[in-house]
Amino acid sequence: MAADGADPHAERPVDEAARADGGGDALLEVEGLTTVFHTDKETIRAVDDVSFSVEEGETLGIVGESGSGKSVTARSILGLIDSPGVIESGSIRFRGDELTGDNWDTHRGDISIVFQDPSNSLNPVYTVGNQIRETLRIHQGIRGQEAREEAVRLLESVGIPDARRRVTEYPHQFSGGMRQRAVIAVALACDPDLLVCDEPTTALDVTIQAQILELLDDLQDEEDLAIVFITHDMGVIEETADRVNVMYAGEMVESAPVGELFDRPQHPYTRGLLASIPGRTVSGDRLPTIGGEVPTPTAEATDCRFADRCPEAFDACERVHPEPIRVGPDHTAACLLHEEGYEHDLDAGDLRGEGTTDGDADAVADGGDRA
Amino acid sequence: MNRLKYIVKRVLMSVPVLWLGTSMTWFIIYQGPVDPAANLLSGNERLTEAKYEAARTELGLDQPPLQHYVDWMWSLFTLDLGQTWLVYTGSNVGALVLDFLPRTVWLGFWSVLIAICIGVPLGFYAGIRSNSVADYVASVSGIVWRAMPNFWLAVILLALLVGSESLFGFDWDTFLITLPSGVTGNPGLSYMAGDPLALFTQPRETLAAIKKILPAALVLGSASMGNEMRIGRTAVLETKNEQYVDFARARGVPGRAIVWKHVFRNALVPLVPVITTEAFLLIGGSVLVESVFGINGMGKLFFDAAIQGDLPLVGSLMFVFIVLMLTINIAQDILYTLIDPRVGYDGT
Do B242 and A139 touch (CB under 8 A)? Predict the structure, then answer.
């Protein structure tokens, strides 16, 4: 990370470790995570210097367009990055234990994952019950009749009717929504503390989507799960997340509690995402979109990666890489609009909203504890 | 229950295939360009109209086509195979097939087994260790095996085995089990005549027969071995990147269990049709390999019968080949239902 003293701008970049509110007691702490993929032609920085933390029982939403690095972040947390990909730098700590450097086995099962496409998450040649029991045996040492009973109980707990019969069926005999429930049951068989959900509802139709979200919500209450919820759907984020990280081109561009983010978005990209939620515009108006597409980052950033598409970009955006800075209570954004010392011809008041100038940010820093 | 129904259905469906296949054989020989009557006569006799007609009558070719077809099909399906016209003229077809078939099946069985036992594990290993030195060595040797022509490989192998004493310091003929007849020739299978269990009760004879067939089986199976290796490698590579493998890793399933339980079984699915297709090619026999190794098998017999238009023999051999192919197909269907539960439950 380029947070060195020689930084030309006077603003202090937010110290990532300090932002984790005391540090050390969060369930999951990700610091300066950089995951790159080496191809023949170039090195793609799929996740570039990303930091965040997840508290016990909290739901963290990670939102961004396709190609912004959300899924790679999820896979990095689980240690599922394969060659040609590699976690180049940064640290991932679970309950204070470092996981990078091939130490994932120390907390295997404490972190579980639900993938986007339920049709491919379960092995087609084994029954659902087999795969639940396999997981139970590894993580809870339950075998035989007890494991069979526990598998039925798990299927019931994720709302699968007639679980006693369905536990003996193969994944292809389940419908899409039921299959995702079965996947969640397998994921829960690890008895995890943290569940990473990588777009778990994207492949499902809207009514099923609502049911799965409800199920995750119930499970979170019952099992005291922390959830990292990855999606490109701002509507889903609003419903599920306690706190939101907005990703763009491998970087975390804004981070705030969900209410704060929806009420006072500070990064032009977040504002663009919020504006493009259907149903928020006056009916009859055209739905605003963000023109262009996410660039593929191949080198360390020397500019703002969003500048090309940003309606509020100015000269300096092409030259200076913005660091995340505090723009409100427990709210950071990486945008030069919020840094002093840069000339831009737009009216600052319009852009910043109330109470989010840098001076104010300093003022609230002390009381900026997360809710 | 479902599985049984599925398999019974496959067996019933093979009846029309058998009928169509034999009918086409009759049509090609009877109506085709090969004239068995002319082949029966010597050069000068062919010029005589009367002798030619006599030959046609003798072979029954002067009958109306439909009657000939019905007679021929009837005797074939009642296993009344008759006598050969031209190849080993006048011998009993049934006896001839029973004499030649075991040698070809023996050769085919061992070549299929060698191909599977070497090709598949090597391919799986290369797939698991993809892009490592071991993978490159296995892949390249797979392609080399695949590319080597059978006749060339057969000759080289023969030369190596015949000269084994001076080249490697041991004599292949007396190595482990003494083979009095040398490297080439028929495997001695007669000890099993009338007593198939002799395969197990007389291990010495069985081992001798295996040793005899091994060089030919290796040559015959070489291309299949290479094919199965390459398909096996691709299948493992594809399966390895499936999401359920990632999910299994995320769930903490140990690496060994991921490979053996989650990857291999799924990788077998695309391999099954490759193995069975290759198996049919190999059991169908190979004229080249049988010729070089001096084995009197069905490949050579069929070739001789076909170019001379020996209808009773060609028909019977085709019948045997079609039955073999259908058996292998049914074996393939059974394998599918065993490996992949998605197959066969919807009446497909």
Answer: no
